[in-house]
Design goal:
about 475 residues, alpha/beta, globular
Length: about 475
Amino acid sequence: MNPSVEESTVVIAGARGFVGKALIEQLRGKVKIIGLSRRSSNEDGIEWRQCDLFSRLETEEALRGADYAVYLVHSMLPSARLSQGFFEDFDLICADNFARAARENGIKHIVYLGGILPDGDGVSRHLESRHEVEHALGAYDTPVTSLRAGMIVGPNGSSTAIVVRLVQKLPVMLCPSWTREQTQPIALQDIISLIEYTLGNDTLYDQIFDVGGPDIMTYKMMMERTAGLMSLKRTFFDFPAVAPALSSGWVSMFTGAPMELVRPLIESLEHSMVAKDGDLIARSGMALTPFTDSMGEAVQYEMSRQSNVVAFDKRGASRQEEKVVRSVQRLPLPEGRDATWVAAEYMRWLPDFLSPLLKVEVDGDYTRFIAKGIAKPLLELELAEVSATDRQLFWIVGGLLAHANPKGRLEFREVLGGKAVMAAIHDFEPSLPWYVYRYTQALAHLFVMDGFADHLQKVARHIE
């Protein structure tokens, strides 16, 4: 460990995940650890802080007192009972909140674990999202070091469990074209050691490193070697190209992994995932773990498993006990405009778009949406004090269509250095019966946001 980090405080976002748990064990006793989680708990040597990364305020509070940070978050599973939007937009908001909070708290360095970006066009949404997160984390002047890895092999890893379960359950496997792409898996322990080596090492600040293990193979070869480690006789046949959706379906069916997790992973496997350089590994002087050793350990764990993979627990991620909504849409930001302008333009544009059904009243910090013929507002918003030119936040404080929820909010925020703006509803609790809401108000919101996106696009073209 870098001497500057010893006896400091390290905050880990994604601390309950596959890599996060292993990193905690690696750093335990060397530094003070703050683990971020959706639920609070007590654990010897660890300070767990409850944090919703979609909340900038909660994230700022959660990073208070930390010196360094490790970011291990990926948002492919739902974060509310109803999640409207793409996982990459959810990822981007969380990373933007974390980066803003890091700046406010004077975090000295962020280490981010992302994915190897293949050469050429057609990069998957999953990998492009990780690339965007890199940019978002570094957008507010905190030094960031990105480690880009392919498959990480170790006990309780989702990708590892998928490989083991496919080999275990399928005596004969038809292998689509993506199984013949090359990959360079790396052992969990090696990734953990590289994160520790990188953290606080100022010679590595604001740099990106590809990292991979000592073995390069195809995914088909990986499954063949895994079958050997499990002492199972398996037959693999090459098969022509198969659409990712079809591959995702059978992988999900045979492994128990949620489709929301499997599909982005399968899409990312259609390109070679080999590290372009070994500079970081050479600097660290590490001896890397062979694939057979890391997968052998993972196989033993999987065969003796008593519970499901944490990442496969869709029920826990979707917060079924709370009837809350998260809806995120990425909108174009016309040149020379900011989030304050977008929020004001939305309030001006909406009654024209829905005329004569709706009008919008703005009274100081309060905005009311009023339907024709109904006296009480459908929704009432209050501008939050923390609003700024690059982020306008409105608390949802009342209205016929909303249950009282102190966390319900609408925001317009700039992301990626002003390249786009996010319109997001968080923790909204509808007053309509749930299934009525899903097929009326929820769909109407998407219709309105699509219309607003078209309007902003027209404004952008007019400015050009």
